[in-house]
Structure formats: structure tokens, C-alpha cells
Known about the structure:
Distance between the termini: 44 Å
Number of strands: 0
Largest sheet: none
Order of helices and strands: HHHHHHHHHHH
Shape: elongated
Amino acid sequence: xxxxxxxxxxxxxxxxxxxxxxxxxxxxxxxxxxxxxxxxxxxxxxxxxxxxxxxxxxxxxxxxxxxxxxxxxxxxxxxxxxxxxxxxxxxxxxxxxxxxxxxxxxxxxxxxxxxxxxxxxxxxxxxxxxxxxxxxxxxxxxxxxxxxxxxxxxxxxxxxxxxxxxxxxxxxxxxxxxxxxxxxxxxxxxxxxxxxxxxxxxxxxxxxxxxxxxxxxxxxxxxxxxxxxxxxxxxxxxxxxxxxxxxxxxx
Length: 251
């Protein structure tokens, strides 16, 4: 825009999903192909759905826990790669954080004296196929756009509230659009009880049952949100997403 340079920021959640999506596409594209170690890419102790989910989650943590520096992000991302490549015979933990509070149990074991068994390692043949994905997602230009440390989740939540009032598949006039967006924003920020406040500003008085109904809807929304943050619910959602991904790949 003239002399003003617009720099696009990236949603950390979307960048994290790129890792999982690209690993799954890689697994699909190499399905049936024999790698240099004489085995396929999938199977026991290979690139399974569980291994992909782990790498995706660790990649997201590497970004979120190093918002102070792009170099620290890159170091943490490559630490994941070499940590996953490591075996009992050839440990590669030079980039892993040191100290007794390190997430790397190998480096932690050097302090505590506890021996670490590399049970979640992936073979070198698979890591060689994965390496270009790490290179691409560890670029400085991309990571600079993640230093803000935020996601698009609040925006998407608001959009969901708007679309529940004004579906994208239905055409509405400009006044209906304005009214639906205003109602969605007030509900998103303050809850359904704001409908009663709007009536008061219009000189109307909401009845007791209407007020109680709006409060009940707000309590239910908070209860549902608290439930979704519980670990058991998160695990169930991850399993559901895994089943959905498998069905999509099969079709």
C-alpha cells in the first residue's frame, strides 16, 4: 500500500498443523515404496499416526516456548529432529536443552544418572525422507511471522457465532447482515444476557423467564467450554480426528 509494507502474521496453530499434514501426505505418497533400509515407511516403529501426532505437537511446542527468538525456535525444531533420529547406539542430543529440568530425558539422565532408552526413535531412512519438511518449516522468514505467539482461534470462534445466525449458504440483505453481526459480537463478548440489555435500551422490559433463559444459556456455554478443556475430552477429540483422517485417506 504505497510506502507501507504489510507483513502477514501466521497462526501458530495453522503452522503446527502444516507439520502433521505434510507428514501424512508423505506417508501416503510413499505407501508401498521400499525405503533404503528395505522396509516401507509405515508399520510398527515406523511413521505411524502416533509418531506423526507426536512430531506435530512437539513442533508446536518448539514455537510456543521460544517466542523470544527465531534462532531459539529453529534450534528447538531441529532438536526435535535429531532427538527423534537418536538411538541407544548413536545419540544425537547436542541441540536438546541441558539440565535436570530438560524435556530431553537423555540430557536429563546425564544429570540424574537415570539411563534413557530411545524407544520412540524413528529409523534413519524415514528421517531422511522427513528432513525436507523440517527444513521448509524451520525457515527464518516463516518463523518470524510466529513471534507474536497467537492463533486465529478467537476469530474462528467469532465467525462460528456469526454463521450460526447468518449461515453462509443463505443470502441476506445488508440490514439483516448488520443485525446478525451486532448480535453475534455482543453475545460473543458478554453472553446471551446482552439481549435483555438491548431491550432495556429500546425502552422494553425483559420478563423474568426471558432473563433466566438467557442466563441459563450462558451457564451452559461456560460449562461446555470447561468440559472441552478437560484432558479426557481432548483425548477423545484426537481419537475422533484420527479416525476421520483415516477415512479421508481411504477414500
